[in-house]
Each structure stands twice: as structure tokens, then as C-alpha cells.
Amino acid sequence: MADSVTTAGAVYVLDALAVAGSAFVLVWSTVPGSRDSALGVLVIALTALLLVGLTVALARLGSRPLPAIPAPLLWLPLLGAALVTSWHLLAGRELGPAETAVALGLALLVMLRQSFTGLDNVRLVRELQESQDRLRAQAYHDSLTGLANRALFDQRLRRAIRGGRPLGLIFCDLDDFKAVNDRLGHNAGDEVLRAVAGRLRACVRPMDTVARLGGDEFAILMEDAAESPDVIGNRILGAVGKPFQLEHRGRATRVLVGASVGVAVLDKVDQDASPESLLARVDQAMYAAKRRGKNQLVTFRHGTPDSPDPRYLPLPDPEAPPPNSVPALAPNPVLAPATGPIPRNGTSSTMHPVTPAAQYRASGQARPEPPRPPATEEELKAQERARLTAAAQRSVERSLAEYQALEKESERREAERAAAERRAAEALQIEAEVRAGTRPEAEVIPLSRAVDLRAQKQAAEAEAAAETLQIEAAEAEAVEAEAVEATRRAKNAAESQAAAAPSTQPRNAGPVSEAETLQRAEQLAALSSDHISVLYRPVLSLRTGQLTALAAAVRWQHPVHGPMPVDALMSAAEQAGLRRPLEERLLDSICSALALLRKAPDWDELTAHVPLPTLYLADDRLVTVLERTLRRHDLPGSALVLQITEDGPSPDLNAAARVLGRVRALGVSLGLEAFGAGPGDLGFLTRLPIDNLTLHRSLAAAEPGSRSEAVLAGTIAMTPGLKLTLIADGVSHQVQADRLHTLGVDLAQGPLYGEPVPLPELDLLHL
């Protein structure tokens, strides 16, 4: 615009000078005495200046578009000056120096003016060409991605069909793209669309047409492609299925989207097809892919008797039904998957019987577009649920057979262990009957002191209750050794009681009452694995927003009292003598789930945070259990983080430091749970090899200026020197997360990222 104003302004100034010079010549030549009169010269000069000012004022340079001044009005004085000068020359009158100079100046002005006019015309032509190019690009290309739009795609598709060459058509629709816009905003959605466009271009040749038809729908037209459209479609599935890295609220965010791909092939034998019919076929193939569970590829091919490939399933001709009594094809055409043939006359749960290809002939008539079945609200909800579980299911399918074999082996070993326990219980029973003299076939041995057999009975009941815990993949030798050890301890306890008891039976040493027996049976039943489960919640990095770990927690659903706290569970297990087997089973279950998840792409470094009660800090058997469990599930020590929980008496810190040092040697990290709420936090922190601190939710939610904030600031200040990782617990909103990240907290967990849920309900795709 500035160049236009400058060029036009220069033309106006030149016109003004030309008019002024022409007026000077006219007055000088026609007014008598003007050459000798000073007043005449002054009038001539003032007239010229007045005309210059008037012309420049009309131009209004630099303000608004220049007004159009009629060209004859500007050049009329110049024409008059030229006529007067020519008349004087023809009359034999010589021009004076002033007249000659003015005439030459006018000629120079005319040439300059025409030069500027020519430049202006060139500029106008260039702007017109650029405007036409922009209009053409807007008319045939998508403004967001730069791909061809529907108009250009239809034009090239019609031209390709007229060319008579084989072509392939791919229709790609992003799965649940609306969730990206809803969660991250439309700007993030636009970035994903641009990235998808780039990946689609990379999957095909430069001469192939890639178009965005609207929203999240893309189409690809390939002519004389060296590769099969099925191969290219699978390549597109892999390319679109890779994570997209976006910037969301100043942090790197990974977005996963899938695609449903439909493929249609036009062979030389089907040159009567129209663009509408081809688009209808590929559109139906795409919707069939969505019905298969999304992130799938379905191919629709048109066949003739000359195409014996059973995947080439024909469209029915409504004007010419098949001559034989074979069942007719359903209104919707059959869609063939990209892999595996479909029987010609076979049936399935979703397809009608297929008429043999030889019964249909190309009639040359236009085939009607099959109607697209509308998706109901229930189908949309089902598709959403399927999308959330598809990725996790694919990651564990490869290990399912191995896992089932492991379960069968565990059941076999459990049966062997149960048989060993029954034999031990029978031995105890026989011994008790012999001591009591109630076994008829045994020799009665007189005893000088009464023996209380309740210890044996309780030990036998405790060992029998372990059968309900179903320890997965436990080694039969170790379990049987535990049973023998428990039997030996029970015998020693009984002998000690017999040695210390008086010569007569105490009044309160009678048999256990029926009520106590029922209460204990109820307690043991409540400790079965049917009522105990492991919950998981995500732990995310505040810097990158990526999932780094899963924090495990235990849920106890009491069959009578309903949900019970973990402390009550451990207390009941302690009373039953089953706390150690229970916690070993929970650790085994957590490692089993973690091993399966780490086999999935991008989760090979996922870790699990496992609660560790203070009861086991000084127990040497902790190292043995960890070694056995990690080896069983082929996990490195770095996959586990033991979170110390203060739910019992304080241990011997010297012994605990020795045991935990051996744990660290396995590669297992150690953390301190609920830091800031327990009285022994600083003692643990200074004496034990701690790697991370999980801040109590009261510190994570500290208000500015409060004492809690001062404690939080002090904790953060000491972490660099101790090389600690900080984890904030109870993060409930984004403002809180941003503030903790600014203060220097590394990881976070809480309602903002997800509540503790069972593993199948954990939504790992949108973290």
C-alpha cells in the first residue's frame, strides 16, 4: 500500500509541475507585455504555484486513497502550451531562452511521468497476479494444514478416473479427536491436525494428493502406486498412532490419537465408477474400521468374475438380482478387512451371506450410494470405553498366555502346599489326641501335668487360612518350609506351656468356645484374596507432565463391615499370623502388574511406589523377598520405590540402616511417606538412605504466609544438599500444581491426576 501511494503521489507531483509549466508558457506567450513586466512575471509564478498546491492538495499524499483526477484536465494546459509554441515556431518567431528551457523541462516531465505510470502499471499487474494466486490457494487448499481441500481433491479424482489408470483411495478419520479439543483446547487440536498432515505427506509419494476434507477427516489419492494401498494404510496407522509432543500451558504434553482408515481400490475393470461411488465405498470402509474397535484398517475392493481374489467382494446391482436362489447381499456392502480372506458364502456375526462374485456382472449403470447406519448414543459410549482400554489391552495380550501358564503353575504348587499343610494338621491332631488319651488305637501315656492344646489349634488354623490367600507363583519348597517351621514353633509353645503349667488343669484352660471359633473363622474368611485388592494412582512429573510412576495402595472390602482401613487389615492379619504372607502376596501382585505395563511402548521405565511398614525395616528377610520377587517377574531393582510408612513402633535405626543398605544395593529406591506429619521424620531422614520425600497433603496445600508454607520452603531448601526428589501428595487443581512446580517440587499425585482405582480402570492414555 505504501508503494502504491508513493508511486501515485510522484505521478501527481509530476502532473502538477507539468500544469504549472504549461500555464507559465501560455501566459508568457499570450499576455502582451508579460515578458517585460515584473507584475506579469509575478502573476505567472503565483499562478503556477497555485496550480501546484491545488494538485498536491487533491492528491492528499499519505492519507487515504488518492482521488481520481481526469487526465484531460491535467494535460489540457500542456496541450495548449504545445499548440502556442508550435504556432510561434511556424510563424517564424524565435523562442527565448526561458521558453526553450520551459519546453525542454515539460518534455522531461512528460517522460518522467510516463515512466512512473509504467512502473505503477507493472505493480498493479503484479498485485493482481498475487491476488489471483491467493484466491486460487484459498479456493483449492486448506488454510490450516496447507493440504488440498475437498474441491481440489474432487477435481483430481475425476481427472484420475477419466485417465483410466488404476488408483487407490484412502480415507483417514482421527479417533476421538474431540477429546483433544475438550481437554487441551482448539489451539492444541490445530497443532495436532498440522502434525497429522505432515505425517500423512511423509507416508506417500510427492505426486500423490493428500487432502483435508473437513474437521479431522483426511483423504489420499494415489495413481499407479508401486505399493499396495493396504501397505500404505498400515503405514499411516503406525505414523498417526505415535505420540504428538505439544506445548500446553508452558509444559511439554504428549498426546495420543488413533485413526480409522478405509481403503478403496479402482481397477481397470471398473472404469464406470464415479467419484461419488468411490467416496461412498471408502467412507463405508472407514466406518467399518470404527465399528471394529477403532485404530483399524478395512479395505473395500470392487470385483468381477475376472478377479478371483475372495477379498474382492462386489456391490449388488439393484436392477439385476442374482439368477440363483442364493440369499441376496444386504443393503450395505460387505467390507473386507485388509488381512485375511473372507469366505465367499460364509457368514459372521456382523455380515450377511455373500453372493459369489461370478453371479454379478458390470451392468454399466450407476450404483446407488449405500446408506450409512447412524451411530446411536449407546454405540458412541461403547466406542469411547473401547478406546480407553484398547492400548492397555494390546500391551498385555502378548503376555497373556505366559501369565495364564504362571497361574496354572501357581495353582499346582498351592495344591501341593495345601496337602502338606493338611498332613501337618493331621499330625498335630493325632498328637493332641494321643496326649489327651482320646485316640482309641493309641496307647494312653499318663502325663503328670495338664497340657493346653489351644496353641496347636490356633497354629493349625492360621496355617490353614493361608490357603485362601492364593500366593501367586510362590515356590512350593519355601511355603512348605514355612509350614514346618510354624508347626515346630507351635510344638515348642505347647511344650513350654506344659512345663510351666501347674499339676492340675486351670479352670480357664478349657476348650475354645464356639463363638470364638466362629469369630476367628469369620476373620480368616475376611482375609481371603477375594476381599483384598490393590489400587493404583498416577504420579506425574510437574516439569514435563509425563507419567513416571504408579503409587500402590491396598483396599480391604470386609464381607460384613464393608470398606475397612489398611491399619485394620494389617492388625487382623497380625492377629491371625498372616501379615507377612499377605504383604508378600501384595508385593508379588504389584510387581506382576508392573511387569506387564513395562512391556508396553513408552512405559518401559515406569516404576511402582510400594508402601513399606516400619515393622520390616530391620528384618533381614525383606532383602530375600525382594530378590525373589524381582527375579520372578524379570524386573530391575530400579522399578520399585519402597515408601516407608510410620504405622508401627519405631525400629532399631542402626539395624534398619544395615538392612536398607542391602535393599539399596539391589537398585531399589527408598522414600519417606507423608513427610511432615510423623514425629520420626527427621530421625529417618538423617539415619536412613532415603531417596525421595512424599510431602504430606497439608504441606502441599500450604497457604502463602502460613507456618506450613515456611516448613515447606525449608524442606525444599534442604533437598539439593541431600539429593532428594520431592513428591507432592493431594494435588487437587492446576493452580496448586503450577505453584508447587515453581517452588521446586519434582513430582505430584492427587485428585487432579486421578484417584486410586484398580488397574483395569486406570486411564493411562490421557496422562
From TrEMBL:
Pfam families: EAL (PF00563), GGDEF (PF00990). Residues 165-302 form the GGDEF domain. This is Bifunctional diguanylate cyclase/phosphodiesterase. Gene3D superfamilies: 3.30.70.270, EAL domain (3.20.20.450). Residues 296-381, 488-514 are annotated as: Disordered. NCBIfam families: GGDEF. The chain crosses the membrane at residues 12-31, 37-61, 73-90, 96-116. SMART domains: EAL, GGDEF. InterPro entries: Biofilm_reg_signaling, EAL_dom, EAL_sf, GGDEF_dom, Nucleotide_cyclase, Rev_trsase/Diguanyl_cyclase. Residues 311-325 have a biased composition (Pro residues). It comes from Kineosporia babensis. Residues 516-767 form the EAL domain. Keywords: Membrane, Transmembrane, Transmembrane helix. Residues 326-338 have a biased composition (Low complexity). It comes from the Bacteria.
